[in-house]
């Protein structure tokens, strides 16, 4: 039986370590690469290297950025006294896409998870406190996920950050906008009911 | 979970999620379990029955294709021919787990890679279920489409099983009764299972923190807050169920108990007052035992006969009767809520009962028959109860072969 050339298997192995790519896809991509135009491949390699070299975490908020500090942290039009705490750098992009938030961010880099050995010291909480010591905030928004760990992390942060004189708030949970009730699962619906609001006539 | 005697000790409230994990290794959104509670109005007198059962490499069945009508089916055969395996397969179609409390590997035929259980359920319309399980792969489809949310699946077929291990509901530890309660709530309240799963997760996280010699109190407080919020929801659901279920159980017990014994059933929460306060007060004990000492995972269902705790003050026969009454009440509760009776799976328990107690069982069977429901019962040939036999559909089970007798 003929085997794939060693460079192809090595490439497939490297690709297979990427998120969302299984062994089959890795092999397919590797085979595609070795059969494509060398310039296209060279461009791809250059793009990969460049992206990795140019993008880093912001030294203040931890979001992905090309410049230090990131454009959000340096934008004078944004409200520096409001800090929104998120789990991952990707969450910053989601919130930015909504276009309604005009404050600053802080990326935790995860959430408390005792079963996976993630404690407060593994998250960017100490940098957050140092940052708040330097520039006190008026409001801290906890924009963490709604799973058990996310909720517990929010509780933890609310306690740890209390006493700074800042308002601490949490994102509302409930119905997705533009969706019918039939698309919401039972837990979301019951939370939406809990968090219902009065309507002005 | 119906049979608990043979279970190895596991985490306290793991029952519904195990079944899900078996088929949904991660893909399921929060594991939502649903029974459509609005069904009563338009399922009235609409019996739900299993019209076809197909097995491949399941237990001792290499291949089985059988058609069933509504009515009373009797599986007759010597011991160890595969009668109970048929009930197990039907129960699996309803709940995605075994009532024998075992995982998928136990149900795969010796030497085979995986098992397949398929069935056609006729109710409001035909529904075809296909479930395949192997250690490497699980597949579940309903009418040809892969099931993404359990909410879309559970409730297609509803079943209540009666087996001799039910006696553990009376004799066994509180976990057995908690499971019974959880299963009943999960079968009847769509929001219950997600809550239970989240509570279990929060509990495991909190216990992981408590394992440290010096737990981080602030972090603990974060998970405690979550535990309290979820725990309050669980207690509320259980507290609400108990008074509705208790009269059904008492009534069923009166019907099948030989003497005029009175069954009392009461929800015994581990924490009577505020869970947050109770958790705070138990911190010193938690330091010693390094685990969460109070909460819904320590609740119990108190069973009393004539005011005395049933586990200590009843005979073996009474315990069996009581367990049977609980299951009958479960079936009646589900019938009341959904408008159609669940499929009744009766594993050999009739043989344990004397004629009077068997007679007490008849109303439930008649009700099922009137509503176009279905009953499956196993018996060894010698002991089948003749007074039940009017319109029995008899099957002989012999070494993994099923034939209409």
Molecular structure report:
- The complex is a heterodimer of chains A (201) and B (405).
- Helices cover 44% and strands 12% of the residues of chain A.
- By secondary structure, chain A is α/β, with parallel strands linked by helices.
- Chain A has two domains: 6-54, Helicase, Ruva Protein, domain 3, CATH 1.10.8.420; 57-198, Dna Topoisomerase Vi A Subunit, Chain: A, domain 2 (3-Layer(aba) Sandwich), CATH 3.40.1360.10.
- In chain A, the strands form two sheets. A four-stranded parallel sheet of chain A has the order 4-3-5-6. Chain A has a two-stranded antiparallel ribbon with strand order 1-2.
- In chain A, strand 5, helix 7 and strand 6 (167-170) form a beta-alpha-beta unit.
- The mean pLDDT of chain A is 91.
- By secondary structure, chain B is α/β, with parallel strands linked by helices.
- Chain B has a domain at 1-158 and 342-405: Rossmann fold.
- In chain B, 41% of the residues lie in helices and 22% in strands.
- In chain B, strand 4 and strand 5 (126-134) form a beta hairpin.
- Mean pLDDT of chain B is 83; it is low at 1-45.
- The interface between A and B is medium-sized, with 23 and 27 residues.
């Amino acid at each position: 039986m003929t085997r794939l050339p060693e460079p192809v298997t090595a490439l497939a192995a490297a690709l297979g370590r990427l998120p969302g790519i299984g062994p089959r896809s890795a092999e397919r991509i590797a085979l595609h690469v070795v059969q494509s135009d060398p310039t296209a491949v060279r461009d791809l390699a250059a793009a990969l290297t460049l992206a990795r070299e140019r993008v880093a975490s912001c030294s203040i908020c931890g979001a992905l950025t090309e410049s230090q500090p990131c454009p959000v942290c340096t934008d004078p039009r944004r409200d520096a006294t409001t800090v929104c705490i998120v789990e991952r750098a990707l969450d910053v992009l989601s919130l930015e896409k909504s276009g309604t938030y005009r404050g600053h961010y802080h990326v935790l880099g995860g959430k408390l998870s005792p079963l996976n050995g993630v404690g407060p010291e593994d998250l960017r909480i100490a940098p957050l406190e140092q940052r708040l010591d330097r520039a006190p905030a008026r409001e801290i928004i906890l924009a963490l996920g709604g799973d058990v760990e996310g909720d517990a992390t929010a509780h933890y942060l609310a306690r740890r950050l209390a006493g700074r004189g800042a308002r601490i708030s949490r994102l509302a949970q409930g119905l997705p906008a533009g969706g019918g009730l039939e698309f919401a699962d039972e837990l979301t619906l019951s939370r939406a009911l809990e968090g219902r609001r009065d309507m002005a006539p | 979970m119906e049979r608990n005697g043979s279970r190895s000790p596991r985490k306290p409230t793991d029952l519904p999620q195990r079944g899900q994990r078996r088929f949904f290794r991660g893909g399921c959104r929060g594991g939502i379990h649903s029974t459509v509670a609005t069904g009563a109005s338009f399922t009235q007198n609409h019996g739900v029955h299993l019209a076809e059962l197909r097995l491949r490499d399941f237990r001792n069945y290499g291949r089985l294709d059988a058609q069933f009508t509504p009515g009373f089916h009797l599986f007759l055969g010597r011991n160890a021919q595969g009668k109970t395996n048929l009930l197990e397969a039907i129960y699996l179609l309803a709940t995605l787990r075994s009532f024998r409390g075992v995982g998928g590997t136990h149900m795969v035929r010796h030497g085979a890679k995986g098992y397949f259980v398929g069935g056609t359920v006729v109710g409001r319309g035909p529904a075809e279920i296909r479930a395949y399980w192997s250690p490497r792969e699980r597949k579940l489809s309903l009418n040809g489409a892969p099931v993404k949310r359990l909410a879309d699946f559970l409730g297609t077929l509803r079943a209540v099983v009666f087996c001799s291990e039910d006696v553990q509901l009376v004799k066994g530890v509180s976990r057995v009764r908690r499971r019974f309660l959880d299963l009943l709530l999960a079968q009847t309240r769509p929001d219950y299972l997600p809550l239970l799963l989240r509570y279990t997760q929060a509990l495991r996280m909190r216990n992981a923190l408590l394992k440290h010699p010096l737990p981080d109190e602030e972090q603990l407080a974060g998970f405690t807050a979550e535990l309290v919020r979820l725990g309050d929801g669980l207690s509320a659901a259980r507290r609400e169920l108990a008074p509705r279920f208790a009269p059904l159980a008492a009534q069923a017990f009166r019907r099948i108990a030989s003497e005029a014994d009175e069954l009392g059933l009461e929800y015994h929460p581990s924490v009577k007052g505020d869970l947050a306060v109770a958790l705070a007060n138990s911190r010193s004990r938690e330091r010693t035992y390094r685990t969460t000492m109070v909460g819904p995972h320590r609740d119990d269902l108190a069973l009393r006969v004539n005011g005395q705790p049933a586990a200590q003050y009843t005979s073996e026969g009474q315990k069996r009767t009581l367990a049977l009454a609980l299951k009958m009440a479960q079936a009646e509760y589900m019938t009341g809520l959904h408008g159609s009776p669940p499929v009744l799976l009766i594993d050999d328990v009739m043989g344990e009962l004397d004629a009077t107690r068997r007679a007490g069982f008849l109303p439930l069977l008649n009700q099922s028959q009137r509503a176009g429901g279905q009953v499956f019962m196993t018996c060894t040939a010698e002991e089948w109860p003749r007074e039940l036999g009017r319109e029995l559909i008899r099957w002989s089970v012999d070494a993994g072969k099923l034939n209409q007798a």
